[in-house]
Structure formats: structure tokens, C-alpha cells
Design goal:
The protein is α+β, with helices and mostly antiparallel strands and 212 residues long. It has helices at residues 6-17, 24-32, 45-56, 66-74, 114-129, 143-151, 189-211; strands at 36-43, 84-93, 97-105, 133-139, 155-164, 169-177. Helix 3 crosses helix 4. The termini are far apart.
Length: 212
Amino acid sequence: MRESDLGQVAELESQLFGKGGWSRTMLDEEFHAPARHYLVDVEPAVDAAVAGETTDGAAGAAADGTAADTASASAPADAEAPDVVRGYAGYWFDGDDAELMTVGVGERWQRRGIASALLDALLESARAQGARRMLLEVRTDNAPALAVYTRHGFERIGLRRRYYQPENKDAYVMAVDLAPRVVGFALPVSQQTAAAGAMETQGLAGKDNHDE
């Protein structure tokens, strides 16, 4: 994410979360806060312009796609136009657990796997940073988000009453382990070989003594 993306992210926050969304000022503070890691999914400006021409113009009349191709070929390339932010996500890592701060995808681009792709990238980033697990809060009535988080291995570990304000909505606390669980320990290969040899020697000696 770049600072120039914050205006579009603020617009998406307002569209998606209403009064509970982060303002531009809040996003600016969050963006510059320490230990934050944010990503955006963008559509290049030229592609967005072409999509708008195809969707909104008269070019959509032909069923064989010819008109759409014509619109694509004639669309102007505006090098000054900003890329269109379709989705965004970020987390905070304090050296132990990572905290998912937000995930949002504009309504126009939902159900395309963008949220899942952003979440995958954040989990991989947090794992590379050495995070033990990732935590998040999600509204208890946000079924689509709950489905995405569950598919990525998050499990409910708590409930926070009236967490989301001013909507006065409850939130589930969810977590997913990032570091591999280690049960017991394993000896290095060289020590394993030596230990196996010692056990074999002991076994043979015992057998010989028993036979005697």
C-alpha cells in the first residue's frame, strides 16, 4: 500500500462499514504507525477505463464480443490516472502474535477471490516475520467473512460483547496458528545414527549374555 492509495481506501471503508469505517485521518495514522504491514489489490487504470467503457457504453450491444474488443482498442491510455484500489488488508505484529487489522473488498469486486488472496499474502508475511499466530475480530453476523476466515484455518476462541461501535455489535475473536507445532524433539541425523548404533550394540550384548 502507498500513501496515495489512502483516499480510495477511505472511500471503500465508508462504503463497506458505514459509520464504523475508518476515516482518512484514522487511516493515515494507522498507515504511519509502527509495525504495520498493509497490502492493496489494484486494477491498473487503463484496464479500469476499459471495463467502464464496456459496461457503461453502447458497446455492449453485440453478443459476439466484437463491440467489446472495439471499445478495448479505442480506450485512451491515461498515464496520469491512478490505479483503482479494489481491496486492501493489513496486520500489526508486535513480536509474538500478529493482529489482523482489516480486510476490505469493494462491492463491485467481491466474490472474485480477492479477500482470500490478500489474506493468504498476509498470513505468509506474518509467518515470515516470525509470528506465532494471527488473531482477529469479526462481527458475529458477518457470514461471508466468517466463511473466508474459517477456510483459512481460523477458529473461534472468544466473544467480545458490543465490540463494534456505534453499531453496538458483538465480535468473535478468532485465531490461527502460524508457527509449526513441535511435539518433543528430534536429534540431528548424526546423533540419531550414533544412538541407533549404541542401541544395536547394547541389544546384541544383552542377547549374548542371555544365551550364555
